[in-house]
Amino acid sequence: MLENVIEFFKNLPPKNCATCGEEIEEQHECYSNKCDKCNVL
């Protein structure tokens, strides 16, 4: 069972920034949906 969960996270596709569409170089399961350039406060 644990192996299935690990495989699930390994196989997630890369996330893309919601603003510019650039691939986000973070963990794919993170909550952020913007890249560092677009995530300005």
UniProtKB/TrEMBL annotation:
Top-rank taxon, per record: Bacteria
InterPro entries attached to this UniProt entry: YhfH-like
Protein name (record): YhfH family protein
Source species: Sporosarcina quadrami
